[in-house]
């Protein structure tokens, strides 16, 4: 009898780190660990290593593992000095302080079209390039000490290899910096200079299946990638399917053979982890809006879900624009949440719960509409991320997107996708793991004679247009 071979994947995400160990042959998760990350949008990268060590403290977790890769929250600016020490805390993807810097950079290059042509995306506060401009303008002493700029997954990859190789990144995560051209696979040093007034050392962009080093225990390390690119690998996304993630962020994306160049800025023209592309729409307001409303209603998440499912599609006219953390897509960094359409009859806890879920999902349906127009037909949705385990999110999503929704049992798609990449690096062939989908939800609204996806879309777009006119 041959013993099974094991690979591991890590998701170093906004709120926590998750580690899974998978069977190389089938992809089945055989062991897992997790640990929390510090709260906040400005975090010492060293805390991610501490959390990783906590999550993997049990030596049995990684025993027998042959290869490991890291998927990580995108865009975060990790600055290193000439000795390789951290210059300051990392500014995360959801830190909005660089919003004005992004606008300046758009002007400096000659407008959004120039950025969309150059790197496939128009910068917003999230992008590393905007954070670099902020650092240069607001902390010149720290800026002067910066020798190298890397991303969260690059940092953890380098640390779990005990810094025995120079920091590396991959094409997927590099494409979220705003200074990497994924069409030619080259850094745009001129854009780094535009933002930071000088060049900095940047991590080598390793090909998808390279072994970039080894841990002190001899485990081979793959290049890793951004969390959304890893998630696409873990979800084994079929054609004409948009992947929706509801973690801290809300994300709509789909693997594509062609890069998008959306000058409106709705779609970021990112790369994936296989050598292709991953057009992606990201909001700042995913699961935490649901958590905030459940707290406001003083109910646990399970009861919040039941409440939402007891309300009719359209929440009897309540509209909740979920901009509790400002917003990135559309770019409204100073916006706040909006609750509209209240009457004496519809202002119920059930409608508030359902409207919150409808609002969060609609903000991604808005993105899916752009993906349809610019990237690919979308005939179904796959759900992942922490809030994808909410029964209400799963059952309401089809009504908001207007297409069937595919779901999984609890599943760490980013970590599993990273493990799949590790298997690729180990064997030279991308493992053919089967789809994790275990559930399918059909559109119900029309059958129930209630508000349809098109009607809901029109209602939300009207409120959004008012907010955009004001901000
Ligand atoms: N059943 C649920 N309903 C709503 N939100 C949930 C549920 N389960 C988990 N969450 C939320 O999902 C988020 C964690 O999702 P995750 O994808 O791990 O986030 P991230 O990758 O951004 O760290 C947390 O905000 C958590 O409160
Ligand atoms: O900024 C983006 C994508 O552009 C986010 O998707 C981050 O990558 C964080 O993801 P989560 O931690 O919310 O999963």
UniProtKB/TrEMBL annotation:
Tell me a Gene Ontology molecular-function term this record carries: ATP binding
The UniProt record lists the Carbohydrate kinase FGGY N-terminal domain at 7-224
- Enumerate the InterPro entries for this protein: ATPase_NBD, Carb_kinase_FGGY, Carb_kinase_FGGY_CS, FGGY_C, FGGY_Carb_Kinase, FGGY_N, Xylulokinase
- A Pfam cross-reference name: FGGY_C
Is-annotated flag, keyword Nucleotide-binding?
yes
Ordered alphabetically, the record's keywords are: ATP-binding, Carbohydrate metabolism, Kinase, Nucleotide-binding, Transferase, Xylose metabolism
Q: What class of enzyme is it?
A: transferase
BP terms from Gene Ontology: D-xylose metabolic process; xylulose metabolic process
Query: Which superkingdom heads the taxonomic lineage of this protein's source?
Result: Bacteria
Name of the molecule in the record: Xylulose kinase
Q: Which organism is it from?
A: Microlunatus phosphovorus (strain ATCC 700054 / DSM 10555 / JCM 9379 / NBRC 101784 / NCIMB 13414 / VKM Ac-1990 / NM-1)
Phylogenetic placement of the source organism: Bacteria, Bacillati, Actinomycetota, Actinomycetes, Propionibacteriales
């Amino acid at each position: 009898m041959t013993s099974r071979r094991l690979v591991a994947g890590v998701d170093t995400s906004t709120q926590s780190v998750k580690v899974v160990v998978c069977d190389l042959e089938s992809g089945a998760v055989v062991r897992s660990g997790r640990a929390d990350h510090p709260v906040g949008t400005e975090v010492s990268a060293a805390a991610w290593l501490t959390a990783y060590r906590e999550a993997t403290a049990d030596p049995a977790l990684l025993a027998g593992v042959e290869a490991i890769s890291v998927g990580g929250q995108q865009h975060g600016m990790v600055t290193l000095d000439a000795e390789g020490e951290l210059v300051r805390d990392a500014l995360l993807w959801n830190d909005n302080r660089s919003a004005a810097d992004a606008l300046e950079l758009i002007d400096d290059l000659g407008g959004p079209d120039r950025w969309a042509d150059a790197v496939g995306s128009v910068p917003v506060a999230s992008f590393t390039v905007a954070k670099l401009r902020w650092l240069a303008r607001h902390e010149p002493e720290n800026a002067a000490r910066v020798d190298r700029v890397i991303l969260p997954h690059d940092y953890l990859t380098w640390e779990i290899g005990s810094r025995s190789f120079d920091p590396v990144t991959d094409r997927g995560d590099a494409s979220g910096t705003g200074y990497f051209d994924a069409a030619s696979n080259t850094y745009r040093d001129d854009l780094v200079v535009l933002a930071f007034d000088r060049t900095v050392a940047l991590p080598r962009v390793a090909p998808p299946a390279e072994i970039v080093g080894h841990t002190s225990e001899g485990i081979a390390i793959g290049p890793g990638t951004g969390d959304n690119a890893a998630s696409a690998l873990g979800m084994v996304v079929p054609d004409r399917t948009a992947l929706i993630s509801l973690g801290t962020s809300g994300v709509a994306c789909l693997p594509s053979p062609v890069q998008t160049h959306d000058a409106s800025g709705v779609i970021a023209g990112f790369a994936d982890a296989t050598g292709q592309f991953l057009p992606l729409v990201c909001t700042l307001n995913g699961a935490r809006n649901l958590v905030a409303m459940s707290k406001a209603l003083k109910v646990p998440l399970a009861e919040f879900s039941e409440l939402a499912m007891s309300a009719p599609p359209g929440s009897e006219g309540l509209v909740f624009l979920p901009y509790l953390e400002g917003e990135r897509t559309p770019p409204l960094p100073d916006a706040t949440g909006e609750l509209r359409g209240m009457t004496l009859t519809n202002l119920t806890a059930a409608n508030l719960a359902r409207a919150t879920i409808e609002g969060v999902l609609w903000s991604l349906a808005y993105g899916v509409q752009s993906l349809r127009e610019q990237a690919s037909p979308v005939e179904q949705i796959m759900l992942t991320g922490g809030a994808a385990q909410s029964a209400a999110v799963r059952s309401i999503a089809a009504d908001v997107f207007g297409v069937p929704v595919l779901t999984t049992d609890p599943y760490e798609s980013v970590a599993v996708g990273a493990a799949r990449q590790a298997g690729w690096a180990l064997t030279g062939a991308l493992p053919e793991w089967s789809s994790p989908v275990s559930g399918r939800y059909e559109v119900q609204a029309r059958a129930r004679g209630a508000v349809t996806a098109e009607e809901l879309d029109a209602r939300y777009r009207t409120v959004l247009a008012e907010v955009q006119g004001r901000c």
